[in-house]
Amino acid sequence: VQLQASGGGLVQAGGSLRLSCTASVRTFTDYTVGWLRQAPGREREFVAGISRTGRNIKHIDSVKGRFTISRDKNTVYLQMNNLKPEDTAVYYCAADQVGNNAYIQTKPADFEAWGPGTQVTVSS
């Protein structure tokens, strides 16, 4: 599966962006999907994930209440509100077919497919 992330950009602190992740397959709902990010000099980290059905979601503590992951049949979204300078990073969507309908993949090394990333820059 090939993934494409879009929606990144430059915003001021407190602003919002919505990232979108689309896939080359007809059955994107066969995959658990995650958003991960990598800031300069730091390791890639899991930010949010969603199960195949969309009923199960997970966000890391630093983005809870600000970011929301969701999905429809063909796209996975990451709504990012109240952005902070520390959110600045390249954001990637990644997908994996492992597990059941409730499973959420969270380990960067275990995702089977990655998109090329989109830059999010938050100015103070």
Short key terms for the protein model shown above:
mainly beta; 47% strand; single chain; seven-stranded mixed beta sheet
* Largest sheet data: 7 strands, mixed
Distinct helical segment count: 0
How would you classify the helix and strand content by structural class? Answer: mainly beta
- Low-confidence runs of at least 5 consecutive residues: none
**Residues in helix, %:** under 10%
- What general form does the structure show? globular
End-to-end Cα distance, whole Å, is 37 Å
Number of strands: 11
What is the typical, i.e. mean, pLDDT?
Answer: 96
| Percent of residues in β-strands | over 45%
Cα-atom radius of gyration: 13 Å
Give the structure's gist in a few sentences:
The chain is built from no helices and 11 strands.
Task: Give a structural overview.
The structure is a single chain. Helices cover 0% and strands 47% of the residues. The protein is an all-beta fold. The strands form two sheets. Strands 2, 4, 5, 6, 9, 10 and 11 form a seven-stranded mixed β-sheet that branches. Strands 1-3-8-7 form a four-stranded antiparallel β-sheet, with no helix packed on it.
